[in-house]
């Protein structure tokens, strides 16, 4: 379904480029038919070429209608819908996959655990003198976000692991109802199996970030307090009042969610919407790749989002780590420019257990500080661990 939707978008844009644009286009640009060409042609009539993809202006100063604005108004997303000059055998989506299929697997390998294959990144070694750190990502992203932090923490003497959760990134994406139903309990069970297969000895240092499966990392800690010596939390929902981003609300709407989950640029746009920055193309390619390759990750996200009770999960996290219930050190590394979660999340969480919780504000970083400003995350982790 993902491939079909992407092909449909591409073919539709090619048609509009050839039939709807009256501005004369130079010969080389006509050969490269793309949504980007369409936008530039419109902008050229106004002697402007907006870098940020904003719409051109008509003579009456009203914005020109752009039916593909939800994709093309973002520089890193444009490449997802370009039609190449010489199509690949499998079509333009096939050519995009060919171009990016080997990207983003830094430090990673496939590990069989139980019925499933996990993609796990690893830096450092079992001989690392300062202990083991496990990094857990949130939805709808993947462990790729930790690549720089992992490399630098290994240099500092730590043994680091970062798996892609089942259904995400490069790990297996089983069809719901066939051995995995994307419930909190099943995520916990499979994570326990992975820890055992990897031979990770408790207690560990755990770093968690993000929504949904990121939150499941925290509820796993509450079930297994003896397995974690220190916990670091990067921008994650931490109180019963935590807002739920629009993406997850849309996924829970019948039928509309099925379409939403098959947006190939969903993950990169989610990252960018929560930050002050735009992803570089080579990074956007990696976050996009699983959603281009198959419909599996989209439907996995859909199922997980519909099975989750976001308010209940956040309430259990707030209560479980409060004073009198949790006494081990917790670092909150908070990107202050997060557009999904306010700074008050970290402050309220700290008030619940001031003796155990320390807050480190990360200026200049948004919802995913490990992607926005990994060096500052490393500095905070090294001081804490």
TrEMBL record:
<dbReference type="GO" id="GO:0003824">
    <property type="term" value="F:catalytic activity"/>
</dbReference>
<feature type="domain" description="AB hydrolase-1">
    <location>
        <begin position="132"/>
        <end position="239"/>
    </location>
</feature>
<dbReference type="InterPro" id="IPR029058">
    <property type="entry name" value="AB_hydrolase_fold"/>
</dbReference>
<feature type="compositionally biased region" description="Basic and acidic residues">
    <location>
        <begin position="47"/>
        <end position="63"/>
    </location>
</feature>
<dbReference type="InterPro" id="IPR000073">
    <property type="entry name" value="AB_hydrolase_1"/>
</dbReference>
<dbReference type="InterPro" id="IPR050228">
    <property type="entry name" value="Carboxylesterase_BioH"/>
</dbReference>
<feature type="region of interest" description="Disordered">
    <location>
        <begin position="46"/>
        <end position="69"/>
    </location>
</feature>
<dbReference type="GO" id="GO:0009507">
    <property type="term" value="C:chloroplast"/>
</dbReference>
<dbReference type="Pfam" id="PF00561">
    <property type="entry name" value="Abhydrolase_1"/>
</dbReference>
<protein>
    <recommendedName>
        <fullName>AB hydrolase-1 domain-containing protein</fullName>
    </recommendedName>
</protein>
<dbReference type="InterPro" id="IPR000639">
    <property type="entry name" value="Epox_hydrolase-like"/>
</dbReference>
């Amino acid at each position: 379904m993902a491939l079909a939707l992407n092909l449909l978008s591409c073919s539709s844009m090619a048609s509009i480029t050839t039939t709807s644009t009256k501005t004369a286009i130079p010969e080389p640009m006509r050969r490269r038919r793309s949504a980007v060409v369409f936008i530039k042609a419109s902008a050229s009539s106004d002697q402007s070429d907006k870098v940020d993809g904003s719409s051109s202006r008509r003579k009456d100063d009203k914005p020109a209608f752009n039916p593909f604005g939800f994709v093309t108004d973002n520089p890193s997303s444009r490449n997802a819908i370009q039609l190449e000059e010489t199509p690949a055998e499998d079509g333009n989506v096939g050519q995009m996959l060919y171009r990016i299929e080997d990207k983003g697997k830094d430090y990673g390998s496939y590990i069989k655990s139980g019925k499933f294959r996990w993609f796990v990144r690893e830096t450092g070694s079992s001989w690392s003198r300062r202990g083991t750190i496990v990094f857990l990502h949130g939805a709808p992203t993947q462990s790729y976000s930790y690549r720089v932090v992992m490399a630098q923490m290994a240099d500092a003497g730590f043994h680091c692991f970062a798996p892609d959760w089942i259904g995400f990134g490069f790990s297996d994406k089983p069809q719901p109802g066939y051995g995995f139903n994307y419930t909190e309990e099943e995520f916990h069970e499979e994570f326990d199996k992975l820890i055992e297969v990897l031979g990770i000895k408790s207690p560990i240092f755990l770093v968690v970030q993000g929504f949904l499966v990121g939150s499941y990392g925290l509820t796993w800690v509450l079930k297994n307090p003896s397995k974690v010596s220190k916990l670091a939390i990067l921008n994650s929902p931490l109180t019963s009042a935590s807002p739920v981003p629009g993406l997850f609300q849309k996924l829970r709407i019948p039928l509309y969610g099925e379409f939403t989950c098959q947006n190939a640029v969903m993950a990169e746009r989610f990252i960018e919407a929560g930050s002050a920055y735009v992803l570089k193309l080579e990074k956007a390619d990696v976050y996009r790749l699983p959603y281009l390759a198959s419909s599996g990750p989209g439907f996995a996200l859909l199922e997980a989002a519909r099975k989750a009770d976001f308010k209940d999960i956040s309430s259990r996290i707030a209560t479980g780590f409060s004073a009198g219930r949790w006494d081990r050190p917790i670092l909150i590394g908070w990107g202050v420019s997060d557009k999904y979660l306010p700074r008050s999340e970290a402050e309220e969480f700290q008030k619940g257990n001031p003796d155990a919780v320390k807050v480190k504000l990360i200026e200049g970083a948004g919802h995913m500080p490990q992607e926005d400003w990994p060096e500052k995350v490393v500095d905070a982790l090294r001081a804490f661990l």
